[in-house]
């Protein structure tokens, strides 16, 4: 999985524009993988910028290139190796970090000329490798670092990573092996970063982690005993006081998630939950080593909607998991019919080196996985189409992401996360609009995944 092209700094040259001073060393960055990896890239570049390094938007202007890799799926590993090879061919001096860096022999076996390999979130080791390859040459009178640090996303939204690692042991996932157990950032540190981002013009905070609803559950007993509610609830409440949209991603459906739904009903947090259900049949969930509680999950969805009727629910699923029978898959389709989720993504299962699911019996043939994926997406599309059609005539707030040369504004509603959900387009009366504006529109047309509206 890679970041979309306009979020990849190696492809989005307009994202970083700096004037290089004489003698200033410069570093390029290729950032692959999920938004959590993008945050790691931003932190690395911020540290380097603070040491006087310039950030190059292309290979040719860089003294060395960092490739932040993804290693979650075999296809992502292949993409990472391709990116490393391209950086070597274009620049020649390459430092590798990120999830695939947890397998250094795998990388050096394919690309023995890389300068160094470090694992995920090993910031100090990355800096050491950069120092060895390109010694710093800071000028404290010239090298000024923005208060919000170096960011690779548009100015009006930013990812906010609240924890690292995961305590789950899902058989198809190797993230805990690569990134370790859950390690939550201190509440005050997260809030301080969010405050700086909002002060710097960010209008939307996208809260991310590997398991957002588990935030703070790894703190010591004394710290947790002093709390009156779950740490994630307190954090969400405090973030909601900053005046920006707050969107929660990767929320496991623990019972305490219900504590946050009233915050959505009150308008402190966007009425949006990104919940990785993965499947619905209890036997499939058991083989995945995930909580087999599909019935209780439906009850929780009903509870959430009762508290906040406008809530948008997003999820991802895996089809073709080893041992998945036609009956189990049909249970998933029936569950989807009942759950009526607003935003849905689906992946065909594939083996990942080191994952325990590889050794499970009864792997599903590729043709069957493809056929089930198509059936799943057909049903998901029909649900999305019906839900969006029901929004025609509604008035809602949207945030402007882009305005093209013809004056068409690409926006998102509170129900849409950047890059993964749909858009709302305004194709007239966009004079005076700017990226990052939040404006009210009336929806006048709906498609399968997108909306069109007129500005009020």
Could you provide a short overview of the structure?
The chain is of the alpha/beta class.
Overview of the structural elements:
The protein is of the alpha/beta class and 456 residues long. It has 3 domains: 5-133, Rossmann fold, CATH 3.40.50; 157-389, pyruvate-formate lyase- activating enzyme, CATH 3.80.30.20; 395-455, Nucleic acid-binding proteins (OB fold (Dihydrolipoamide Acetyltransferase, E2P)). Helix content is 32%, strand content 19%. It has a 5-stranded parallel β-sheet with strand order 2-1-3-4-5, sandwiched between helices. A 5-stranded mixed beta barrel has the order 14-15-16-18-17. The chain is globular. The two termini are 38 Å apart. Mean pLDDT is 88; it is low at 1-17 and 140-147. This is 30S ribosomal protein S12 methylthiotransferase RimO.
List the helices and strands and how they pair.
Elements: E1 26-31, H1 35-50, E2 54-56, E3 64-69, H2 74-90, E4 94-98, H3 104-110, E5 116-117, H4 123-133, E6 157-161, E7 163-164, H5 175-179, E8 183-184, H6 187-199, E9 204-208, H7 221-225, H8 231-239, E10 245-248, H9 261-266, E11 272-274, H10 282-288, H11 294-307, E12 312-319, H12 326-339, E13 343-348, H13 366-389, E14 395-403, E15 409-413, E16 424-426, E17 438-446, E18 451-455
Parallel strand pairs: 1-2, 1-3, 3-4, 4-5, 6-9, 9-10, 11-12, 12-13, 16-18
Antiparallel strand pairs: 7-8, 14-15, 14-17, 15-16, 17-18
Helix pairs in contact: 6-8, 12-13
